[in-house]
Amino acid sequence: MYRGGAGQWAWILHRVTGVGVLLFLLIHILDTGLVLFGAEVYDRVVKIYTHPLFRVGEVGLAAAVLYHALNGIRITLLDFYPELSGRQRELFYGVVALFVLLFLPGAYLMLRPLF
Amino acid sequence: MKVKLRIKRFERGKDREPYWAEYEVEAEPTDRLLDALHAVKWYQDGTLAFRRSCAHGVCGSDAMLINGVNRLACKVLLKDLGQRITVEPMRGFAVIKDLVVEFDRFMEKYRLVEPYLKAGSEPPAKERLQTPEERERFDDTTKCILCGACTTSCPSFWSNPDYLGPAAIVQAHRFLFDSRDEATAERLVVLGARDGVWRCRTIYNCTDACPRGIEVTRAIGEVKKALLLGKR
Amino acid sequence: MEAVYHRYDAVIVGGGGAGLMAAVNLAGQEVAVLSKLYPVRSHTGTAQGGIGAALGNVEEDHWEWHMFDTVKGSDYLADQDATEILAREAVETVYELEHWGLPFSRTPDGKIAQRRFGGHTREFGKAPVHRSCYAADRTGHMILQTLYQQCIKNRVKFFDEYLVLDLLLEGQRTAGVVALSIADGQLHVFHAKAVLLATGGCGRIYQITSNAHALTGDGMALALRAGVPLEDMEFFQFHPTGIYKLGILITEGARGEGGKLFNGRGERFMERYAPTLLDLAPRDIISRAIYRELRQGHGVEGKWYVHLDLRHLGREVIETKLPDITDFVRTYLGIDPITEPIPVQPTAHYAMGGVPTDVSGRVVVDEKNTVLPGLYAAGECACVSVHGANRLGTNSLVDILVFGRRAGRDMGRYVGEAELPPLPAQPEERARALLARLREGPNGDGRAESVAALRDELQREMMDKASVFRTGESLAEVREQVRALQERYQQVRVQDRGWVFNTDLVEAVELGFLLDVAEVTVEAALARQESRGAHYREDFPQRDDVKWLKHSLGRRTASGALELSYKPVTITRFQPQERKY
């Protein structure tokens, strides 16, 4: 494993969350498409998603979207203002900080009904 | 102090797989890693192969993977590496022997960006004038010693060897932003092609690896902007 | 393995400034550049301070002043016809570099910036003059890259990582070279009308040197083995400011920007040795001054170094004008030149001597300057002689470019007129035999000498007995030691018996070159019973123009012994004077 710094981790997470969200979207399109097979099939499949495990999964999804969006803003900033490159590490720490700030309350709200 | 070196060995045509060899040397904390490698080669195992020349970070011969990061062996001191050190060849180019990799393809990418001044008009009798500010504009990218540390630290390059790579782009940047160069349009064509700057994912491994402290990712970003919005 | 055969009009050995400049001037011809390194790794790239040319961008300057400074700096041993060419053509050479794109630092009005440098004066010695044209403190790096870029533009053919093992002569004409392709151990014969030796210096004969590991005097040794004499080998320059113990160069440009030298007592000792030029006196003068101070126990904390103080220059100047050496000092010493003085000591730096040539780069083989058709030399490995007994800073970059160009042009003329001589029978035999002996050992009986052990001893003894200060006794001793090492070299066997990228074998070959070069150096130094320029004999401390105003030529005879002869110095404008600064 190449011991890259913050920039490499930012990218790895961006790639993982990006692929993850993409996978989710594909599955979501498929499961919504089940409507074409009638209400009963659709309802049965969607009921699976009420299982608590999927609730946790949704929190994971929210995390992925949130991180990807925040880091996406970081990268966009760096692309349009290359002179900020000297601060790319700080920007990443800012992304992480914002992520924690927004995700923790959000996760709490999403998971509370389970308990 | 005693230092343990774990070096990845391999000889093309002889070994099927690379293997690890361990050596112990007696060294000073202020010695360069290159000094330790020489200690192994000259006094323990003469078969160890690595490139080196100036031994002070200017010629760019000895870029390699040291403790998981690309560095010049002659610029990193043992005291910053600890007493157990892992040394491997750069990634992304075929290994010829031990720490020596195929480098011709790297030089080919360099040639692809036509790294020479294209000034078009006839030169004056004396020097073309250039203000200190104009000179400053491309100062950073003049520092590149073509060591390969940046390109071989880039995940985009690892997954796509046809990517021009940070080094070639840095060299192109040096001409793009040189006020005397007049070939902006044709340079941008090469840089904006499929395997040009758009393969960059803003990962920053290159900037971290550069032994000359060049802001590589920033330079690539400036080229991206030039492609989008025009130069400067 | 059969040797691979190539045919070219001209072959250039060495991919540094001189070799690349010749290649650019030969573009369009059938020329190949062979280099044991990738050309961009060549030592030209480490030159820091600048290239000297009388452009007059910062203050009034004239090439005649440059010529005078160079002649005086050479302690009047330089051939003045060559020095005149150097000073004159320097100006157009610098403009040509700029036209090719070299990113010089600039003055506020956009011209090429110039700074002061050791030994360069206005009005024939009155005061320092701004003559060194620079690109921050990486002028050499920019020159090497710009030249390589021009080679790319001109589609020059390169054979990278080819080590030349042998020079081929047929009758008294050049027929080509034999080279080892380092990557696969294959031998290659390059059949050519003209060969240019541009292999650089030989600083690795000494223990503390600014030179890269690759500088092992290859071209000089190849010429010597082919029966060509080496000129002025006793003159080896020690640069005063190398990083303590490492030998890494701190450019003279640091003193050009105002840096000063202090001993352990805080004295600016150059006031006593060179009252006018002080820390900008020529290098041989300063190196000896430092050694004298150190011998008297005035080293910092009693150790073998003095201080180079840049603190008074301020952060701005240090970081913009001297960024690279700032980096070296921070990296290797862990100190900051902005707040602390730098420990420095003399380091083996430059060979003024080398393969003798005329002003067109053609190799000449005797006292009458008889040309050896087809053989050329340029750069540090050559001796024109422009630097005589001591070289001024910034003049090497001029030398390699001016004479690299002249050699390239004359080669172009020559290959147009000359015929290709036949190759000697079995051209690769000598090279093959050398490699076989190094690989197998002479007896195969297990008892073998190691390359590293012999090289360590050579470097140590040369540093101790044939460096800044020499005596008849020390030189006689080291002469015996080098001869003994030559004997032991015949018993060397490498550890690595492979064919692929065998750097053990490369270093063994290079050791042979080092020994040859060291032998001639010591022999010439022992014979020269005077002190001149960089050659200082404690038993003969005065310069003796009556007996010694001449160039030495050291040749290896058929029996293997070294024989010395001498040839006169060309004096035109400046009669020898006492050399004071």
Summarize the structure.
The complex is a heterotrimer of chains A (115), B (232) and C (581). With 232 residues, chain B is α+β, with helices and mostly antiparallel strands.
List the helices and strands and how they pair.
The complex is a heterotrimer of chains A (115), B (232) and C (581).
Chain A: H1 6-33, H2 39-48, H3 52-80, H4 88-111
Helix pairs in contact in A: 1-3, 3-4
Chain B: E1 2-9, E2 19-26, H1 33-43, E3 63-66, E4 69-72, E5 84-88, E6 95-97, E7 100-101, H2 104-112, H3 132-137, H4 139-142, H5 155-159, H6 165-176, H7 184-191, H8 205-209, H9 216-229
Parallel strand pairs in B: 1-5
Antiparallel strand pairs in B: 1-2, 3-4, 3-5, 6-7
Helix pairs in contact in B: 2-6, 6-7, 6-9
Chain C: E1 4-13, H1 17-24, E2 31-35, E3 51-52, H2 63-73, H3 80-99, E4 114-122, E5 127-133, H4 139-153, E6 157-160, E7 162-170, E8 173-181, E9 186-197, H5 218-225, E10 230-231, E11 236-243, H6 253-256, E12 260-262, H7 270-273, H8 283-295, E13 306-309, H9 314-321, H10 323-333, E14 342-351, E15 355-356, E16 362-364, E17 371-377, E18 382-383, H11 395-417, H12 429-440, H13 451-465, H14 472-489, H15 503-527, H16 545-548, E19 550-556, E20 562-568
